[in-house]
Amino acid sequence: MLGFGRSSRPPFSSDPIVAETQFVESIEDWRKEMGLNEIILMGHSFGGYLSASYALRYPQYVKALILADPWGFPEHSNENKPDTPMPLWISMIAVLSQYVSPLSVFRVTGQVGVTLFKTLRPDFKYKYMSILDNPDLVYSYLYFANNSYPRYNPIKFNV
Asked: Of 53, 74, 95, which closes a domain?
């Protein structure tokens, strides 16, 4: 998916409807480029949301749709405003997140990114203990898969 892993990171619109269309059309462009008449589309999380959006827009090309933990956005409502004010630090993070994505922060951390990731998500190590001799490699893999702009850049791990 565009903007993730080692894919290209084109600029997306700040308008959510336009950005969704950009993502969906990138899937359609890929399908055409591959010469596929029918696809089995699988999406996880945000990819699930976009897969469903694609299937709604182009049902004639979707043979099957697999959604794993898909998410979406609820309609904005002013009815359920909280009675207590939001703490300032949360408000500041919310404002900053409009301009800086978590992956862009991750990319500028350099080699500190692996340590930062271990600190912020210690639970990842435990998910892979049964299948990896060194579960800390998960952090390196996720960091290096998302830290740089896409280009051929072989990364060697000491396993």
From this structure: 74
